[in-house]
Design a protein that fits this description.
The complex is a heterodimer.
Chain A (H helix, E strand, L loop, with lengths): L14 E4 L8 H13 L6 E4 L6 H17 L6 E3 L3 H9 L7 E4 L4 H6 L4 H13 L10 E5 L3 H4 L8 H13 L3 E7 L11 H17 L4 E4 L10 H13 L4 E4 L4 E2 L4 E2 L3 H10 L6 H9 L17 H4 L5
Helix pairs in contact in A: 2-3, 3-5, 7-8, 8-9
Chain B lengths: L36 H19 L4 H9 L5 E5 L5 H6 L1 H4 L4 H13 L5 E6 L4 H21 L4 E8 L5 H8 L4 E7 L10 E7 L10 E7 L6 H18 L17 E2 L7
Parallel strand pairs in B: 1-3, 2-3, 2-4
Antiparallel strand pairs in B: 4-5, 5-6, 6-7
Helix pairs in contact in B: 6-8
Classes of the chains: A alpha/beta, B alpha/beta.
């Protein structure tokens, strides 16, 4: 049994992207954050690394690291390295075990061009990921990130407002049958969403539009240090999204992404949301957490023994 | 009893030994499923320090004086953003010069000799980063560039600049390449990280896809000496190939930190 492309949008469930970034892509540092997240019941949406270095060789190394971990512990999830799509294509062609193909997308052709992508390139990337046949036939292999303000930031908004253009980005996503789409709502900074109130509003707008368009929508509930926002604002948005049935959120150790330099939601936040709203992890992943003695069916975390298999393998201990 | 410490109800995580592999906030322990109070307070303190870094005042004249001692010729300019709040709210103002500064630059251009590479330094999102990292980086970088026969004009210190300002300054001076060093958005653990962005044939209409970036320049990240070596290699490759951006490949090989500037947080 290998990673099972766990479903992250069943009613009554809440999945988490485990985001174990490291400023120099150190494999041990990344693995330590993955172990931390798994022991907090996170990682069912995807284990997705933002690499510090956008190179095919590094992307391939990180994909192999993720594949080894997923195979060794038989984790029902999927891997992703969030490099540029051309970098992932090069890694894939060099034999890297890629589960999900990632790309940041926007709502105008010109903004997508500033990201170095167009629809033909995305089609090529999707076909390449499907050709690996790592997922069941007809599976969804694309992962997209979006965020209000990206078109304006690239002076590619044609005078249009950022929320309309964000919804257009979801139209782009929809054409590629993605497994995951999330807005990175507060990442772009105060130039586009000035304070906590604007981030909260935009997060709800994005979630709503994603649902309207039938997307497997998640939200990176986040802010940067130059925004007029703080962790209390994020707790508010997180709770509102929990009530609104968000499909998945991010899990970053202690909310602090030491590579991207912003604050997102933590593994602890995911526990909070699942327990308060009685949302289970993806079913295959919940079964794995039970088998690994990490989380009880009532969603409480079990005490972890120092001899836990995740703490005794691969020289990390 | 009033003097007794309250019992610690939080449960430690038995993998704190993994912290030696990363600065990430792992093995924080938990109370139920939630963060123990001490970690909540540590986080709030770190956030307050990062906020202070964002709003730390930029001493452009002081930095210019320090750079003159390199030695180098240094001019001070201001973007069209009148203050910090306008800078944060209006990225477009940070991408162009104030009218007065445009006039000074035009005058300087008329009397200046040919320039292959113009270097700009700005506070960007962290004045601390510009003050701490720009002098050692330029001390290491300028001799390397001179050895590569780059003709360098004056260094321009610019208040409240965005990356895109390199296009206006570069084209006004007719420079083949423009390089801007500016403070990156302060992270919780790294409030003083400098970013370096450059573009070939700077001019209107360029986007992030036309530029390259070396980021995380600070002693605990990519140290200024190493950043200087990398930038010199990249700038030489850009001049040789007459291009920059997503099409420029890292001459040092795949394991070195080169990213196309997509998307640039300091945009």
């Amino acid at each position: 049994m290998r990673g099972g492309y766990a479903v992250s949008r069943l009613r009554g469930h809440l999945a988490v992207r485990l985001q174990p970034n490291h400023p120099t892509d150190d494999p041990h540092g990344i693995a330590a954050s993955i172990v931390d997240g798994l022991l907090y019941g996170c990682g069912d949406a995807v284990i997705g690394i933002n690499p510090a270095t956008d190179s095919p060789a590094r992307t391939g190394e990180l994909l192999r690291l993720l594949d080894d971990l997923i195979q060794t512990y038989r984790i029902p999830t999927q891997s992703c390295v969030l490099a540029h799509v051309t970098t992932q294509l090069a890694a894939l062609r060099a034999g890297a075990p890629l589960d999900l193909m990632f790309q940041s997308i926007a709502g105008t052709e010109a903004a997508n061009a500033s990201f170095g992508v167009n629809l033909a390139l995305l089609r090529e990337a999707q076909a390449a990921a499907l050709s690996l046949r790592r997922a069941p036939p007809g599976a969804q292999v694309m992962y997209f990130e979006t965020g209000q303000g990206s078109c304006l930031s690239a002076s590619a908004h044609h005078g249009c407002d950022q929320q309309t253009l964000e919804a257009r980005a979801y139209g782009v996503a929809r054409a590629f049958a993605p497994l995951l789409v999330n807005t990175v709502v507060g990442f772009i900074g105060p130039e586009y969403l000035y304070d906590g109130k604007q981030i909260i509003r935009a997060g709800l707008e994005d979630h709503f539009c994603g649902k309207l368009l039938g997307l497997p929508m998640g939200v990176d509930v986040c802010y940067t240090n130059h925004s007029e926002a703080d962790p209390d604002d994020m707790d508010t948005l997180l709770t509102l999204l929990g009530a609104a049935g968000v499909n998945y959120i991010m899990g970053v150790p202690g909310s602090d992404d030491i590579m991207l330099g912003y604050q997102s939601t933590s593994f602890h936040d995911a526990q909070y949301l699942r327990q308060v709203f009685a949302r289970q992890p993806a079913p295959e992943f919940a079964a794995w957490l039970a088998a690994m003695d990490i989380q009880a069916p009532d969603l409480r975390l079990r005490p972890v023994s120092p001899q836990h298999p995740l703490l005794s393998g691969d020289g990390l201990g | 009893m009033a003097s007794a410490e309250p019992a610690d109800l939080s449960l430690p995580d038995p993998w704190s030994h993994l912290r030696r592999h990363t600065d990430a906030r792992i093995a924080l322990g938990r109370a139920g499923g939630s963060l123990p109070t001490r970690e909540l307070l540590r986080f709030a303190a770190a956030h307050a320090l990062a906020r202070d870094a964002v709003h730390a005042p930029f001493d452009a004249e002081g930095l210019a004086a320090e750079l003159r001692a390199l030695p180098a010729e240094v001019g001070v300019l201001t973007s069209a953003a009148p203050d910090r709040t306008a800078y944060l709210l209006r990225p477009d103002l940070g991408r162009r010069l104030s009218d007065a500064s445009r006039l000074s630059l035009t005058r300087a251009a008329a009397s200046a000799g040919p320039c292959d590479l113009v270097i700009i330094v700005s506070d960007g999102l962290s004045a601390l980063a510009a003050h701490r990292q720009a002098p050692p980086l330029l001390r290491a970088l300028r001799p390397r560039l001179e050895a590569l026969n780059f003709r360098l004009g004056p260094i321009w210190v610019v208040r409240h600049a965005r990356v895109g300002l390199l296009d206006e300054v570069g084209s006004a001076l007719g420079a083949e390449l423009a390089l801007i060093l500016l403070g990156e958005r302060p992270g919780l653990g790294a409030p003083d990280s400098l970013g370096a962005y450059f573009g070939y044939a700077p001019g209107p209409g360029h986007t992030d896809a036309d530029r390259n970036c070396v980021s995380n320049i600070r002693p605990a990240g990519l140290p200024p000496e190493a950043a200087a070596a990398k930038l010199a290699d990249l700038l030489a490759a850009a001049r040789r190939g007459r291009h920059s951006g997503t099409t420029l490949k890292d001459p040092a090989g795949p394991s070195a930190p080169l990213s196309p500037a997509l998307p640039s947080p300091a945009g």
